[in-house]
Design brief:
Number of strands: 17
Pfam families: AAA_lid_2, VWA_2
CATH class of the largest domain: Alpha Beta
Structural class: alpha/beta
CATH topology of the largest domain: Rossmann fold
InterPro entries: ChlI/MoxR_AAA_lid, P-loop_NTPase, VWF_A, vWFA_dom_sf
Largest sheet: 6 strands, mixed
Protein name: Magnesium chelatase subunit D
Oligomer: single chain
Organism: Methylobacterium mesophilicum SR1.6/6
Length: 567
C-alpha cells in the first residue's frame, strides 16, 4: 500500500466536504485497495444516486477487475464453491466448481438488500474477509453492502464492523451529486509521530470499542498519504471517513474538547522536563482533530448521541433472510430443483433417471447410470419454528406476597400452555440488586414448576437488570435458530439501578433504556402488570413496544390469548 500515489483529500484548503464528496473519496480508496478497506455499507434507496456511486466505484477500478453481485438466497456451493454436481455425474469423476467469492478475488462483491442477508451467509462473508481464502482458493475482495434503510431491519454489525466506510446517501438528490474537482495538493506538513496511537485515542474519545475501527482508519490514512508520511490531514480525513459514523458518544471535556464555562481561564501548566514527558501524552487527540471528526458525524446520529440513545444496529439478519436461509425440517416430498441451493434428494433423482437408462445408454454407449440435469430432485421440507418463551418475573418486595403468588400462578398457567405446544421455556427472576437465570431454556415442565415454586420474594426492584437478562437469554435463543418471546411480569416500579444502588429516578431511566434496547432488538414481548395502579408498567410496555395486560383482570383464557398474540 505504501507505493500508491497520494490521493487528494476532499476539502483540502477549503470548506468541509459534503456527503457526496466523501462518498466519492471513499470509492476511490476502495478502488485503490479493496481488501485493505474491506468495503462499505451504502445506505441509500434504489435510484440514480446509488447507481451513480456504484458507477464511480467501478470506473475507478482497473479494467477487468472482477465485479460480482450476490444473488438472493445463494447456496453455500455457489457462494464458497464445491462440486459441480451435474458435471460430476456426467463425467463420472469429481468436477470442482469455484464459488462466487473466489471468482471475485481482487475485485468487488455487491450485496443488494444487505439488511435482509441471512445470518449464515453474513458469517461466511465475514470469515472470507478475515482469511482471504475460501475452499483453498484465494478470495480477497471488497464488499459493498446496499442497505435500503428499512427502519425495522439492520445489517449485521459483525459484518459491517469489518468494512471501513459507512456511507449514508439517503435523501440526496441529483443536485447533490455535482462533482467537485479536488483542491490543489497542499505542501507537506509535519509527519505524525504516532498515527496509530492518535487514531486509537480518537476512537476511544468517541466511544468506539471495536479495534477494527482504528485499524481500518490507519489503513485509510496510509492510502491517503501514498508514499508520503502520514500527517494531521490524513488523520483528520481517516477519522472523518471511518471513525465518525461509528461514534457512540461525544468526547468528554477531558478528552480534549475545551471547557466553555464562564470561569476565569486556568493558568497554563508548567512545561515538564523533556525526559519526564509521558509518551502517552502524544496519543491524546487534540481539539482540531476532535472537532473535525465531530463535525463529520451524521446529523441524525449526532442527535441520538446528544440524547444518549445511539442507534443499536442489530447483529441479526432480517426476518425475510432468516426464513429464506432455512434448510431444515421434515421431508414431505421432492421436486425438480437446483441442488446448489437446496438439499439433493438422491433416491428421487435416481428414480427420475431410471426409466431413461436404456435410451441414454444406447445414445452415449455407457454402462454406468446416466443422470442429466432434468433428473435432479431436491427435498421439500416442512418447517416448524420452535418458540422459546422467556418469563421475566419481578420477585421484589414491591410485589406483595399475594400478588407474587398470583404472578406465579399465571406463569404456571403459561408454562403449561407452552408445554402443550412443545415449546421451550426459560425463567429469569430479578430482586434485590440484580437478576439471575433461574431456569435455562427447557421443555421440562417439572423443572420449570420446581424453579418457580422455590422463587423467593423481597428486596429492591432492579427492573433494568431483569430486562437486560431476559434480552440476553432471548438473543441467545434466536442465534440458536429458535423464535424467542419475552413475558415480563412486574408492577414497573423500579428502584434499583444497574449498579445496584437505590434511587427511583435513575432506576426508572435505566429501566426505560433497557426496554428500548429490547424493542430495537426486534423481540416480541408481553408485559403483565402485577401492580394495582398500572401507570408504571404501562410506560415500560410502551417503551418495549409490547402488548400490555393487567393481571387483576386476566383470566386463563386472556393470558393464553395474550401470549399467543405476542408470539
Amino acid at each position: 500500500m505504501t507505493g500508491t500515489p497520494r490521493l487528494p483529500l476532499a476539502g483540502e484548503g477549503g470548506s468541509a466536504p459534503g456527503r457526496w464528496e466523501d462518498a466519492c473519496l471513499a470509492a476511490r480508496l476502495i478502488a485503490a485497495d479493496p481488501p485493505a478497506c474491506g468495503g462499505a455499507v451504502l445506505r441509500a434507496a434504489p435510484g440514480p444516486v446509488r447507481e451513480g456511486w456504484l458507477d464511480i466505484l467501478r470506473a475507478a477500478m482497473p479494467p477487468g477487475t472482477p465485479w460480482r453481485r450476490l444473488p438472493p438466497g445463494i447456496g453455500d456451493d455457489a457462494l464458497l464453491g464445491g462440486l459441480d454436481l451435474a458435471a460430476t455425474l456426467a463425467a463420472g469423476r469429481p468436477v470442482p466448481r469455484a464459488g462466487l467469492l473466489s471468482e471475485a478475488n481482487g475485485g468487488i462483491v455487491v450485496v443488494p438488500m444487505a439488511e435482509r442477508l441471512p445470518a449464515g451467509t453474513a458469517s461466511r462473508l465475514a470469515a472470507a474477509l478475515d482469511t482471504g481464502v475460501v475452499s483453498d482458493r484465494p478470495a480477497r475482495f471488497g464488499l459493498i453492502l446496499l442497505d435500503e434503510g428499512e427502519a425495522d431491519e439492520a445489517i449485521a454489525e459483525a459484518l459491517a464492523d469489518r468494512l471501513a466506510f459507512r456511507l449514508d446517501l439517503g435523501g440526496l438528490g441529483r443536485a447533490g451529486m455535482s462533482a467537485r474537482s479536488p483542491e490543489p495538493e497542499r505542501a507537506d506538513g509535519p509527519a505524525e509521530p504516532d498515527p496509530a496511537g492518535r487514531l486509537c485515542a480518537l476512537a476511544e474519545a468517541f466511544g468506539i470499542a471495536s479495534l477494527r475501527g482504528p485499524i481500518l482508519a490507519a489503513r485509510v490514512a496510509r492510502l491517503l498519504a501514498g508514499e508520503r508520511s502520514i500527517g494531521r490531514a490524513e488523520i483528520v480525513a481517516a477519522g472523518r471517513l471511518v471513525l465518525a459514523p461509528r461514534a457512540t458518544r461525544l468526547p468528554a471535556p477531558e478528552d480534549g474538547v475545551p471547557d466553555t464555562g464562564d470561569g476565569p481561564p486556568a493558568e497554563p501548566p508548567e512545561e515538564p522536563p523533556a525526559e519526564l514527558t509521558d509518551p502517552a501524552a502524544a496519543q491524546v487527540p487534540d481539539e482540531v482533530v476532535l472537532e473535525a471528526v465531530r463535525a463529520a458525524i451524521p446529523p441524525d446520529l449526532l442527535d441520538q448521541l446528544l440524547s444518549g440513545q445511539a442507534r443499536l444496529a442489530g447483529a441479526k439478519a432480517g426476518r425475510v433472510g432468516q426464513m429464506a436461509a432455512a434448510r431444515t425440517g421434515r421431508p414431505v416430498g421432492s421436486r425438480r430443483g437446483d441442488p446448489r441451493r437446496e438439499r439433493l434428494d438422491l433416491l428421487a433423482t435416481l428414480r427420475a433417471a431410471a426409466p431413461w437408462q436404456a435410451v441414454r445408454r444406447r445414445e452415449e454407449e455407457a454402462r454406468r447410470i446416466v443422470v442429466r440435469r432434468d433428473d435432479l430432485r431436491v427435498r421439500i421440507l416442512r418447517q416448524r419454528t420452535e418458540t422459546t418463551t422467556v418469563f421475566c418475573v419481578d420477585a421484589s418486595g414491591s410485589a406483595a406476597l399475594e400478588r407474587l403468588a398470583e404472578a406465579k400462578g399465571a406463569v404456571e398457567l403459561l408454562l403449561a400452555e407452552a408445554y402443550v405446544r412443545r415449546d421451550r421455556v426459560a425463567l429469569v427472576a430479578f430482586r434485590g440488586v440484580g437478576a439471575e437465570l433461574i431456569l435455562p431454556p427447557t421443555r421440562s415442565l417439572t423443572r420449570a414448576k420446581r424453579g418457580l415454586a422455590g422463587l423467593p420474594g423481597g428486596g429492591g426492584t432492579p427492573l433494568a437488570a431483569g430486562i437486560d437478562a431476559a434480552v440476553a437469554v432471548a438473543l441467545g435463543v434466536r442465534r440458536g435458530g429458535s423464535r424467542p418471546a419475552i413475558v415480563l411480569l412486574t408492577d414497573g416500579r423500579a428502584n434499583v439501578g444497574r449498579s445496584g444502588e437505590g434511587g427511583r429516578g435513575q432506576a426508572g431511566t435505566e429501566a426505560l433504556q433497557a426496554a428500548r434496547t429490547l424493542r430495537a432488538a426486534g423481540l416480541s414481548s408481553l408485559v403483565i402488570d402485577t401492580g394495582n395502579r398500572g401507570e408504571e408498567a404501562r410506560t415500560v410496555a410502551d417503551a418495549m413496544g409490547a402488548r400490555y395486560l393487567r393481571l387483576p383482570r386476566a383470566d386463563a383464557g386472556q393470558l393464553s390469548a395474550a401470549v399467543r398474540a405476542a408470539l
